[in-house]
Amino acid sequence: MIRTTRRKFLVASAVMAATALSLSVMPAQALSPRSEVGVTSTAIKLGITLPMGGSARYGYNQLPGAMKAYFDYVNANGGVNGRKISLVVKDDGYLPKQAIQNTQDLIAKDKVLAVIGALGTANNKAVASAVNLGRRGIPSLFINTGFSGFNDRKAYPTSSTILPSYIMEAKLMSKFLKETYPGKKVCMLYQDDDFGDDALVGFDKSHGNMDFAVKVAYPSLSQGVAGVPDSWITKFKAGGCEVQVVFGVASATLYTVLAAAKAQYAPKWVLGSVGADIGSINPATVPYIIGATSMSFMPSVVDPKDEYVAKFKEINTTYNAGAKFNSWALIGMNTAFVAVQALKAAGKDLTRASLLAAIDNNGSKFANAGLVPLNYSKTSNVGFNGYWFGTFNKTGDLVPNDTFTYTPYTTDSGTGDVVKSTYVRPAMPAKGLPN
Amino acid sequence: MRITSFKSRAFALVSTTALLATLVVAAPAHAAATGPTCDGATPVQTCTGTTSDGAAYKMMVPATFAGVVTIWSHGFGGNTTIPGVFAVDSSAQLAPNGPGQNGGSPDLIKYLTDKGVAVMGSGFSTQGWNLDEAVKTNAELIGIFKAKFTTTTKVVAWGYSMGGGITQAFAEQHPELISSAAVMNPVDAWGSQSKYFIDLLWLMKTWFDPSIKLTGYAAGAAGDMQMLGDLQKYTAILTALKAGVASGAWPTTSSASGKTLQAGGIPSRSALLMIGRLAGISAQSSSFDGIVGPPGAAATAWPLAYAPALATLENIAGVLGYSLLGARDMQNKMGGTSFDNQKTDYSKQLSDEDRTVYNAAFSGNTAIAGMLQTLSPLNPDAPRIKGDAAALAKSASTMYESTGKIKVPTVMMIGQHDPVEPAGIVQRISDLYEEDFAAAKAAAKKAAQKSGAYSAPARKLQVLWSVTPKSWSKFDADGAPISIVGTPGTGHTNFTMAQYKVVIDTAIEAAITGNLPWTGAQLSKVTKAKGLKIDRDTLYPWMKYYNK
Asked: Looking at this predicted complex, what is its ipTM?
């Protein structure tokens, strides 16, 4: 199908009709290149759809504010090749149908150059299919999901993810569990969908090779049904579980730890990065997860010596006044920081195609706060590829240790080994502005 | 859009009689070709007659007739008179009907004749799946008109639903007889359309009421009554499913497989949604958008977990009568069951996207696997339909299967969530056309390399999508959903007069100029008709028959 917007097509058609005679005798090579949607000589327009309202908004709604703050900071310092960046934000309530509509509006009405940082597996799968970004050449960059399916470049030729895949996460977690809790009965609660499917792959014989004494799958949304989390805990207790993995969403973590406390079930908790993300977790969870283990690819937001955290905090204070600097603020600002480098690398003749090519060609070298490398290339649309392990302190922040010394591990979504990372993070550019 | 209380109405679960009454059309009163006999009235004369196959026709020709005539093909009608329930009606149809109308909207007919455009159409000699018969009738009728009105220069074919399919088939087979076509929510080729209908019916029977007959109806009136009995059972299923949406309860008539799934904790709403996704019916409907939830804690969970099933229920109610009548009609025509699903792998009909997007509504991957397992051909509790060899052979050799090829300038219109003719029917035609158009452009560019001059090919297909509002579900003060009737972009043949006018105007303009209009003025007309989009960006899944 032709992938122009409706209005543009009709306007173009009108012009074609008006000049039909001259066009019919015009050499094909005489047609001049068109300007790109979402780009003018002074401006670049980007868009994002994510839950800003509704029950899934916690934490995630910090993303756009932080992204805008960084773009404003860049704009105040001259923009990208003289262009100021704006970000159109749409609330999808974490609903696929709304995400489809929002994305269509971002493209057809707001006329954005690219979608950036959109959230969620189901939403982005629905969008990719119904809006058909790939065939239309519209970039959807740095999607906030770890679902490995998006790493299929044929199916998602213009999309990229930024989170490590859930398969990678499960592989790393397997290594951690086997090394930290040898001989212990390890049990797992996981979400019974793509998210959990990825985890099962990562834990299976040919990947993480992790055995669980008890595995319980929960259908998404069932975690909030009275009595359901209690039934999980009953199974785990009956199985004699000593270490409890939760590979679910933040609300599942909350209901699980509450039900465990009620049942006096006190295992060692190992919480997946999604369900224990302190930015999106209900504050009521915090007292129950102090000392629990989890994982991150970004530095701790309370790291007093990290130069990226320090600079991003400073920008957040100035350009995102009143907003707390939490893990999603850090991810949002870092995403914007990476995006600016991609826009710069795309050059002055910025187009959707040149933006995608810039990420393919240079994305793995973009400076950023991540403690593991970005993996963008002509054959990979995967962002980060590893994690470090830490524990939750009394304020609910994930820290590696008292000295904030990180030991990150990396792997792939296949059967490659889990290895200690040798990645050396590029230094923060002067003033936090990419060269 | 009218809003009524969800609680007080069995939303769109129409009664058997009312449902069948909507499908009544045309009687096969066979007669020799007659007419046209014209009344000579001014400013518009009316001519009547019958074609050689006995189809009653009607023509309305203005005194200002400028050479353009439209030929209308009406929608699906029951092909069997059931005493006391309905009788077949063969009256000629000239244009789309407005609410409560038959024969064509007088407003639309006047709109056209005021422009100097003549209108004609027949009632067809055969109802039911009458594509082959109707194409012949239309070809003959065009000849009759041209012989009578020799100044005729352009013929524009149009139709909706079954008539949309007839119009498309006519344009494929007789492009020499027409100058343009307007195809509205067309039926798909029979192989695809019948799979859609019977997949829905078989899946419901398999899980919710195995006593439903569905195939092997007796001949004549006895078989008609068996079909009506089935219709009542299907209606009872939908009523029970609606009652069980919140609790997850299954109909008491459910099969052993259904009861096993119920015992496994899978709510009936998940099974209902699975049926819809496997068959390919939309999960958005007139009342349920999958976007808006009741205020409060369920605002996100409700549209994810409940709305898709309720939308499926509402849409199945909208297609049920057509499905059964279609299945019954084809059995009569082919002399047996011309559908066979013995080798169908239903698990492959669940798309990867659906598996993810509706995962919560399905109750998770484990539930999905459990449901699909019961549909295995090896499950004796889910007996497959075995087609009759002779009927299958007859169907394959005699039924015209539309190719979807565009041979004359064509404007199409379809609702995003039409439950009877899903949007994927037009999507497929559009996709196929885009391939042809891309090839034509490539050929033109290649030619330009030799000649040094580029002559762009004209685009021959314009699709007008009837779209929904951004969101439309409503809830009462208690948080209960409110039934909504007539939401744009949903329902079958749910178009406005303004939309019909822009469609036929576009086709007439294309007939006169030889090309579809793609100008700003056309965009303005489409915009003014409200609720329509020329959109080649949104994608709708093809019908399951194409395994794409």
From this structure: 0.87
